[in-house]
Amino acid sequence: MIGRVCVIGAGTIGSLFAGHLAQVVEVSVLTRRREHADALNERGLRVTGRTSLEGRVWATDDAEELPDFDLGIIACKGTDLDLVASLLDGRVAGATMMTVQNGLGAEAVVRRHGRWPLLSAITFMSGTRHSDTEVEYVLDTPTWLAPYEDAPLEYAAEVAQLIVSAGLRAEAFADLRPAQWSKLIFNATVNGVAALTGLPHDRHYAAEAGPDDLGALVRELMNEGKTVAAAAGISLREDPWEMNVHATRRGSAHYPSMLEDVEARRPTEVESINGALVREAERVGASVPRQRALYALVRGKEASYS
Amino acid sequence: MVGCGAVGSLFAANLAQLDDVEVWAYDLAQAHVDAINANGLRLVGAGEVLGQVTATADASELPPCDFGIVATKAMHTEGAIAATAHAFADGAVATVQNGVGNEEVVARHVSRVIRGTTFPAGKILEPGVVQWDVKGDTTLGPFEPSPARAEEIERLADACTRGGMPTKAVEDARPAQWRKVIFNAATNPVGALTGLTHGRVCERADLRVLVSSLVAEGKAVAAAQGITLDADPEELIDHAARPEVAYDHKASMLQDVEARRLTEIDFLNGGIGRCGRDLGVPTPLNDAVAALVRGLEASWGQVLHSHTQSREGV
Asked: What residue segments make up the domains of chain A, in order of their start?
């Protein structure tokens, strides 16, 4: 039975998990900033948009102060993951940990810091953080999860059930890779293109009338990703191009996190997304010239900050 | 002179030094036109020149001319030559613009066209005053489908050279043109997309590989047309990356992007891609960077991002 959940990292995704789960279980939250923890303790967490609710949470910026928990949802950015996982090193041995980072490799980073049973997750839900204590639930698309290494499938099923009971969408799988790779290819393309062009994920990404229209590049980048997946023996759960077309027709243009990062001149998740895909391509001997170019250009853009 | 920006001003002011040449300049920047007519056209920097040029923003004022030199940004060629073509009814028109495809546009409006490539560069400091940054050679030759006469091309090259702009008349101007196009197409979009100077692009191994891949596609497209380049763009790229040459130079396309001006992407990487498709030569990376730069241009029409962007969404 999962009675206590700790959400580690309270950005948009962490806040959506914490606010909803607080309706059904005890929720603690580990924040990076002290004022953020203080505000959550004082005012709780307000969720608007698709759902409308208030959640009471117990928050701290000091990992030493965290109470025991049964499930840890590690929802920090990929670039902070190693540091965040190190704060948990050797603690809460009885907990199950779940990673929800974009790209590949998050589970292995967490594994270096503890023997917890691990669940891999990816989430398609999205929101907008309006303040430390208010988050808007924008897209009610699901979170998919699966055991990592030898974690039992029942754990994944139980966590999925808990998330659903809290009012979010979730589904458990025996093997996450078909879904994880669908999203990896989607993110490696859309986030990289957004970071370089400054365009939110809008109709330009599906426009392919001419050979140098953006949609033509998006399709080619996704074809390269599909070639890597096929060579790695992974059958994708969803076609990334169809995900792209569907998302651009929704009517509201989403700002991929990598675009927000370059606008704020922060390090991006390019290594765990584009870098991971390029390294997988090298491992399986697939040719990804456009993705390699995108990876180099985003890294170059990061280098231009200084 | 059709288009009297930085490069056009270099030609106009230098040609105006000659007793046997009368220079008219057509440009839409009224303040620049007025300053030229009031005080002459002044160059400073690599050369100090004051030229007496008659400037106008009204193409109907242009007299019949023996020669035209088109020096607008490539996306303005069509409008500029359509407006001025009447002046060249019995003349020859050269283009010294960046990229590929400009001659084709000019040839839709005038019958005798000169293919040109020029390396001098500068910038407008204030109306009527242009900073001459870099001296360099110009190459002129016939535009093959609609050529000017050989003696005409030589007469124009001779005038430019006597005026202070060293210019060669050649039988085939494509090698020089493609060397410059390939150089620009391989370096400009990489600088524009990353924000890095030329030197910093070249010292990052992964970006230098991308630059080389773009060069290789351009060379393949040139080779498929039977063009033998007159120098290797790779050597020019490495030379320019040296600290004493152009390490700190921001590519003109990066300057355009920073100022949110439309770039010449359609005539550089876009032009290489179009030629490649005509010839059956694949240009995947030129197409890719062209799509990214066009996407970047499209983003300027968007509402600026804020964290509450998706508030009205769904």
From this structure: 4-172, 177-303
Residue B258 near chain A (CB below 8 Å)? no
Which site among B305, B306, B308 would you substitute to test the A interface, given the most A Cβ atoms closer than 10 Å to its Cβ?
B305
Domains of chain B: 6-169 (3.40.50.720), 174-297 (1.10.1040.10)
How many of the other CB atoms lie within 10 Å of CB of B38? 10
The model's pLDDT over B99-127, given as tens digits with 9 standing for 90+, comes to: 999 999 999 999 999 999 999 988 899 99
CA distance A265 to chain B (A): 12
Q: Which CATH class is domain A177-303?
A: mainly alpha
Q: B68 near B62, Cβ under 8 Å?
A: no
Is the torsion defined by CA of A282, A285, A288, A289 positive or negative? Answer: positive
Which residue from B194, B292, B309 is facing A197, i.e. has the nearest CB? B292
Superfamily for domain range A4-172: NAD(P)-binding Rossmann-like Domain (3.40.50.720)
Q: Please tell me which of the candidates A126, A252, A303 has its beta carbon nearest to residue B204.
A: A303
This complex has an ipTM of 0.89
Query: Is B6 within 8 Å of B121 (Cβ atoms)?
Result: yes
Structure pTM? Answer: 0.89
Tell me whether residues B201 and A295 touch, CB distance under 8 A: no
Residues 6+ apart with CB under 8 A from B61: none
CB-defined contacts A:B, below 8 A: 137
Question: B31-90, pLDDT tens digit by residue?
Answer: 999 999 999 999 999 999 999 999 999 999 999 999 999 999 999 999 999 999 999 999
